Amino acid sequence: GTVGPLAFLPQETKSRRLIVMNGDLLTTLRFNDLVAAHEESGAVLTIAVMRRPIKVEFGVLDLGAEIGAAREITSYREKPEIESTVSMGVYVFEPEALNYVTPGESLDIPALINRLLADGRPVAGYPFDGYWLDIGRHSDYQQAIDDFEKIREQLLAPAQEVRA
Fold first, then answer.
1. What pLDDT digit, counting tens, does each position of 6-60 carry?
2. 40: CB partners within 8 A, 6+ apart
3. DSSP string, 60-116
4. Distances (CA, A) of 55 to 52, 85, 94, 95, 115
5. Which of 28, 76, 130, 133 shows its CA 20 to 30 Å from the CA of 51?
6. Residues 89/134, Cβ–Cβ less than 8 Å
7. Is residue 59 within 8 Å of residue 130, measured between CB atoms?
8. Would strands 45-55 and 81-93 be described as parallel, antiparallel, or unpaired?
9. pLDDT (tens digit per residue) in 85-141
10. Strands 18-21 and 60-67, sheet pairing
11. 72-76, 143-147, 155-159, range with greatest mean pLDDT
């Protein structure tokens, strides 16, 4: 899983706050702002999040009461866009969060988040409304190439020292 390998970090690294991110994204997220929000929240893990429309490629129906062998249709939306909060693939971990990652066990981010929540540990979302692109498909890669040229200065702005 995407988180499992963190169990193999050297102990001196695992004893510090970490910023972890997917390698296939392009963003203007300011990591100092993310870390500051994380510190303020008191969470053991913070996820950079963004509001994104998700296009449903089908007509979506809501069903009501049974009508014989059928069901009453109470609403019909043709190919709706549903606003959702999505993970940007950028995370701030407190050392405590890594205690939930066992060496040799396959574990991904959603499973870790659910473990933390089930154990009553606070997990926060940091809303971001700047530029973000997940480069998981060929068309996204081409978009990243095109966008990079347009916003080069924002993406290559002098790096700030991140207090992680």
1. 999 988 888 999 999 998 999 999 999 999 999 999 999 999 999 999 999 999 9
2. none
3. EEEEEEEETTEEEEEEEESS-EEEEEEEEEEEEE-GGGGGG--TT----HHHHHHHH
4. 10, 13, 34, 37, 30
5. 76
6. yes
7. no
8. antiparallel
9. 999 999 999 999 999 999 889 999 999 999 999 999 999 999 999 999 999 888 888
10. unpaired
11. 72-76
96: tokens are: 């405590």
For residue 103, the one-letter residue type is P
**Phi, psi of 116, rounded to the nearest 5 degrees:** -60, -45
The burial of 48, by beta-carbon neighbours within 10 Å (0-12 exposed, 13-18 middle, 19 or more buried), is given as buried
